[in-house]
Design the sequence.
């Protein structure tokens, strides 16, 4: 091996450990998304009940409920990267005593969608798209 090779490997490992990246303007560290993750765990919904409700309406509802239930009043920004057709998908679901994170997970599963936690929001997207 060349002497410089180990230095490059060391930088890659250090970068991975620190989760530092120089690629893309939307990159972020786990520390920046921890606040959202905590809110997804701590915000509890007593009951959600949807009968043939459009996914766009469900997202608006969850965003509003997260604000009203968040002690800080900020809530969680939830938005979709869905097409008009996908935003018209309908969801039927009744769940009691669920965290906001679990609610999002269940709704995405029911509508065959995916979600990711970004720096400032939860993004719901189609599995056919990369979500970017």
Sequence:
């Amino acid at each position: 091996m060349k002497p410089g090779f180990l230095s490059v490997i060391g930088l890659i490992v250090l970068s991975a450990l620190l989760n530092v990246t120089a690629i893309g303007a939307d990159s972020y560290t786990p520390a920046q998304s921890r606040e959202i993750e905590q809110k997804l765990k701590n915000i509890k919904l007593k009951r959600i009940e949807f009968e043939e409700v459009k996914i766009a309406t469900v997202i608006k509802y969850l965003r509003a409920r997260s604000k009203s239930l968040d002690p800080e009043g900020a809530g969680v920004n939830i938005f979709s990267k869905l097409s008009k057709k996908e935003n018209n998908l309908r969801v039927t679901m009744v769940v009691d005593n669920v965290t906001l994170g679990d609610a999002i997970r269940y709704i995405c599963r029911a509508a065959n969608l995916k979600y990711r936690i970004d720096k400032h929001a939860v993004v719901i997207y189609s599995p056919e798209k990369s979500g970017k």
Notes: Residues 1-28 have pLDDT under 50 and may be disordered. The radius of gyration is 18 Å. The CA atoms of residues 56 and 84 lie 9 Å apart. Strands lie at 44-54, 78-81, 90-99, 114-117, 122-125.
